[in-house]
Amino acid sequence: GVITHTSTVTTPYRGAGRVPVGIGRKRMRVVVTGGAGFVGSHLVDKLIKRGDDVIVIDNFFTGRKENVMHHFGDHRFELIRHDVVEPILLEVDQIYHLACPASPVHYKYNPVKTIKTNVMGTLNMLGLAKRIGARFLLTSTSEVYGDPLEHPQKETYWGNVNPIGVRSCYDEGKRTAETLTMDYHRGADVEVRIARIFNTYGPRMCLDDGRVVSNFVAQAIRKQPMTVYGDGKQTRSFQYVSDLVDGLMALMDGEHVGPFNLGNPGEFTMLELAEVVKEVIDPSATIEFRANTADDPHKRKPDISRAKELLNWEPKVPLRDGLPLMVNDFRNRILNEDEGKGN
Ligand code: NAD
Ligand code: UDP
Ligand code: UDP
């Protein structure tokens, strides 16, 4: 017969009941910083499912053990309580760097800490990537575009950002993190990937993070009025978390550095969002207007042509299908909170 040579390496299937590693794909050791948070924990679920070894680094500022507890006891999963502002030594193949408070309420709580996390945390993870030759992915944000003067936003847009505002610790922090990432790439040959994530929602979002989707959903469940800030005509584009996780993994495992916008281009005003929440959660839900916060971007919508073309990725879950998927998780947690208060 003909002997064919392939350059692929397969890892033997280890242990019963686990997902075998796909033919041709090396079993990876992966670090997820911020892996006990909302997005991170969903990413961890998918990495474990595909057969990788996963180390989560988290300081539990906004993350919760409950988000990853279902992996305790799995020898491929490790949870390290660690602050990325401090150096750490590990041996891995890939680093997904998510650690950073993401909602305005949390990142404004201690702005200097937010900057340290973005700058020193990212520096440490890049130093780690350099030392061990790991591939590094930064989860940046659509906030690097600031209050955008270009609509929808392409990756080539440089942004309209206030350097001295109350959001600057986050958006300027992420801009610096992107700069560091590119400088390690150019200067030290570190393999890097940059994702610019647009507003994402789903189960395990913090109940009290003040983000609009979590607020409206929790308010509708609690039979409280949904708080619309300003005139409610500002727009956002909302992406379901499983779409984001697919995009992050396609980016990490693909050949392109980016930056890539990862978001759902479906654009809604806050008033329209309130309508959708009303439709899918409680037809009797009401709204209430509140003053808006400073530096609130008026509109935001990703142009995702680059990710479609180069990563072969686009979101699959529209808002009306995604919102119902987070309702049970929110109901259960709100119920637990209420029971806790009664004790
Ligand atoms: P999250 O707050 O749920 O998760 C962040 C995680 O990082 C938490 O588990 C937190 O405890 C941890 N963390 C924070 N500071 C840390 C530190 N110094 N050391 C170690 N761990 C630390 O937020 P998320 O929505 O899951 O966001 C994850 C990443 O995605 C963030 O980098 C965020 O900026 C980015 N992002 C998210 C969105 C979104 O809509 N969710 C949008 C744009 C960008
Ligand atoms: N670093 C780390 N783990 C490592 C290697 C580096 O946390 O395995 C940290 C290191 O402490 C430093 C940062 O990453 O603060 C940047 O490291 P690099 O080697 O690029 O710079 P230098 O140490 O020369 O300043
Ligand atoms: N928002 C709102 N009601 C809320 C919380 C937020 O109308 O209870 C508005 C907020 O003013 C902003 C939009 O919703 O215009 C998105 O806010 P969020 O904090 O979710 O995300 P970001 O501003 O970071 O995009």
Tell me the series of helices and strands, N- to C-terminal.
EHEEEHHEHEEHEEEHEEHEHH
Stretches with pLDDT under 50, minimum 5 residues: 1-20
What is the helix tally?
A: 9
Biggest beta sheet summary: 7 strands, parallel
Helix content: 25-40%
- Compute the number of strand runs: 13
Query: Structural class given helices, strands, pairing?
Result: alpha/beta
Strand order of the largest sheet: 3-2-1-4-5-6-11
Global outline: globular
Q: Kindly report the average pLDDT value.
A: 91
Radius of gyration of CA atoms, rounded to a whole number: 20 Å
Instruction: For the record, give the distance between the C-alpha atoms at the N and C termini, rounded to a whole number.
Output: 74 Å
Portion in strands: 15-25%
Q: What compounds are bound to the protein?
A: nicotinamide-adenine-dinucleotide, uridine-5'-diphosphate
GO molecular function: UDP-glucuronate decarboxylase activity
EC number: 4.1.1.35
Function: Catalyzes the NAD-dependent decarboxylation of UDP-glucuronic acid to UDP-xylose. Necessary for the biosynthesis of the core tetrasaccharide in glycosaminoglycan biosynthesis.
Protein name: UDP-glucuronate decarboxylase
